[in-house]
Amino acid sequence: MTKTQLREECSRLFKCEIIEDSNDLLDIYGEFLFKAIQNHHKETVYSHAEAEAKIVLQMMFTKVLHLKNVISGISFNSKDGSVLHTIIDPTIVAILIRNIYETAGMFNLIYRDPRSKEERDLLYSLWVHSGLKYRQRFENVITTPGSKKKQQQEKEQIENIVTQIESSKLFQSLDKKNQEKIRTKLKEKDYLMRFVDKEVKFLHWHDMERVMGFKAGMLDNIYTYFSFYSHPSNVAVFQFGDMFKLGEQTFVQLVNFNLQIAFFIISAFIADYITLFPTVIRTFESLHLKDQIVINFHNRVGRGQDYSINDSWKACG
After folding, report:
1. Which of 40, 105, 125, 232 would bridge with 208, disulfide CB 3.0–4.6 Å?
2. C-alpha 70 chain-centroid distance
3. Distinct helix (H) and strand (E) counts, the chain
4. pLDDT of 142 over the 80 cut
């Protein structure tokens, strides 16, 4: 491939102006994620947290494949001969991308954003505690002895996590105000917080684009946008009516917009994963040069050169 051809092909996949181009980019993401799983899943990990980080990679891989499947569209042939020609539902695409956003945001918050192992361990413990605490809500509907035993084990695990957090050096180094903030997160079954110079800062999901390092203006309010479609809001209903007006293809434009946001998030996740597991760079750099450039593009544009996976983009210069 000549430099001119490389530039043209990369430009097409940067812009993804049509669904077919977006589909090609999702194939490139999927191919890399699958190779990363195959080549590195059995490498040594040094904590349960790292083992679960590898599972998150598998989850992201399946989400990318589901997204690819959703944008293939749906059609319907009624028994009376009526036909719904192929459409793509932007609201379903948006719901899936919101989940991708949350997965990438969680991964960054726990595995990349912390400045020390102590911060990462505490945030990881909060994350585990949150999930187990929510599972305790099923206590009254558990009937089998095996499930009851599991529920009791998890209750004891929850208690141990609280003890572990409160006895940690990091927790003990905080003043009472910030210790209470962490206890509040434990009570709320939540983990969305970060440390800023010994100060505990509470977060919400709409803060994750900032935590992930995206530049101001890149993804502002995007979580709120996707949330409109994850709930049966009035906005979701009246906008749905506008998407499929006879003779118009508004839904295609909206799908392409949603996908562009997904590309920023998936690209950033891949960069964060390679930062956590540096050996994965070997698989990344075994890809065709074009694939390296386009995988890294949205991450580098959205978050800046400091987050870049490598310097493959210079080949287009």
Report:
1. 105
2. 17
3. 14, 4
4. no
